[in-house]
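Give me the 3D structure for CALR protein.
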Amino acid sequence: AWSRRWVESKHKPDYGRFVLTAGKFYGDAEKDKGIQTSQDARFYALSSRFEPFSNRDKTLVVQFTVKHEQNIDCGGGYVKLFPASLNQEDMHGDSEYNIMFG
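Predicted structure for CALR protein (102 residues):
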């Protein structure tokens, strides 16, 4: 289950909630499931830890895919790579991060 790997921040009580779904457009309803935002006009905060690594003398590539399905004028998503010291349940917009893009 995705919720065992990913932690939703509880920093603010009005963060939107994530759901697992293939969304409106998919090839295979089961194979194409992913984590989706469930409410329009909300902030979201979700994080997952990964094993420590080094990219010394190597190129680091960080990639993510987004499928925007809402019919809203403004919105977007981004990825932040946080230090290992991040308190995931208290993550918020001012939490220290190392890399941000989106």
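The chain has one domain: 1-101. Let me know if you want a second pass.
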